[in-house]
Amino acid sequence: MFQALIVDDEVHAANGVEQGVDWERLNVSGVFIAHHIKQAKEILGTRPIDIVICDIEMPQGSGLELQQWIREADIKVETVFLTCHAEFQYAQLAVQLGSLEYMLKPVRFDELERTLQKALAKIQKAREQTSFNETLRTYYKLWSIHQPLLIERFWLDLIQRDIPPHPESIQDALSRRNIPYSSDMTFSIVLVAVRRWHKELLPKDEKILAYALRNSAEHLYRTEGMPCQAVQLMKGTLLVIFPSGGKDEADLAAACGAYIESCSRYFYCDINCYIGTSVMLEQVPDMVERLIERDKDNVNSAGRVFSLEDRLLTNSSVPMPNLNEWSNLLKQGAKEGLIREISAYFDGIGSIASVNAQHLHDFSHDFTQMVYYVMKLQGLQAHRMFTDKTFQRLAAEATRSVQHLRQWAVLMAETAFRHMRDAK
Question: Are 35 and 8 in contact (CB under 8 A)?
């Protein structure tokens, strides 16, 4: 919700704005009125005002003077000026002082509402950015003081088979590390895979948020009296491991659903959760491999909970595009036509449940072969064309999902067209 302040020495003008604007639709919960600068300063100093609608010419000080004071006091508000005079000097000074808009009286309330809506959208965006920065600072502090734990190293060694998956070897490793597990315990495993981030992140920020994901996972899945360990398996993938028995299948699925929602809302990412079956310690490496393969074959879904019992469909019913037609479009330089065909193809397979990783691999190989063939006919060398860091990053992630493959294919086509045009 937002708070607004109307500043106008004319009582009827101030009341008119207060009564004429649909504040509820704008999500404004409080509207205050001041009839001179002193009163406005008192309200701004005691109330969390977000937007000021201010007259310019007033007998006890102008609106421009108030805006100058707001700027010097570093009060974070957006200002909309209302005035009876369309003087360029006023408008120019208002802009210099950081006002959002300069409107002439009498103002139409529908136009004023559109201006206020624009201002409030700007404020909301700034709020979200502030919240994002505060989240990063909080988890950076936790991340910077965090030290690797022996128990995390144990799980990684076991998963990577540095500890042989035999009860005697596992018990020996537990004893040497003073870890309070026994080789006859059973464990539940949830694989968490990040499908996409909601915004572009710097590498440092991504590391901080990855730590935040781990930290929140341990709290969410922890059962009273039962330890829980989140282990970073690879970039964008972590395991949550805890002794079996603390949560039944329904509780675990509900916890996964809550975690998915939290990650989307607070950590700016869409994830999937894959629930494994309860296993002995020596069975953990095989279970992890099965969960990883399950994630690799999921190329269409995000924000979902899966179990190993979910039936995997084959890709036999997934059509491949007519690459001969695509090749002709590329030869003809029909950029818009080819991009349209690529987009239509991915729109089509995006709703097919049987699409899996093998289909994406097949497409990437055939599409690359088609582009390279046409480039050869044009006398162009592929190794000189696809060197851009963005392209290389997308190529490395192309078969991660249908969306990743779509971005890569479009960029590859655009790059090919650009080099063909430059070569002419």
Answer: yes
Whether 72 has a pLDDT exceeding 70, the answer reads yes
Dihedral (CA of 396, 397, 402, 403) sign: negative
* Residue 90 pLDDT exceeds 60: no
229 has which bridge partners? 241
d(CA 260, CA 271): 6
Q: Which residues pair with 53 in a beta bridge?
A: 6, 80
Q: Would you call 234 helix, strand, or coil by DSSP?
A: strand
Give the strand order in the sheet containing 51-55: 28-34, 2-7, 51-55, 78-83, 101-104
- For the stretch 180-206, pLDDT in tens is 788 888 999 999 999 888 888 888 888
Tokens of 8: 């106008």
Cis ω on the peptide bond leading into residue 106 (within 30° of 0)?
yes
Model pTM? Answer: 0.59
Q: How far apart are CA 25 and CA 296, in angstroms?
A: 45
Give the range among 74-78, 88-92, 294-298, 304-308 with minimum mean pLDDT: 88-92
Written as six digits, the tokens of 410 are 């479009």
Read off the tokens for 163: 């500890």
Structure token pair of residue 55: 């007259």
Separation of alpha carbons 191 and 117, rounded Å: 42
Q: How far apart are alpha carbons 205 and 203 in whole angstroms?
A: 5
> Mean pLDDT of all residues in the chain?
85
Nearest alpha-carbon partner for 398 in 340, 348, 359, 353: 359
Q: State how far the Cα of 284 lies from the Cα of 188, in Å rounded to an integer.
A: 9
CA distance 99 to 111: 17
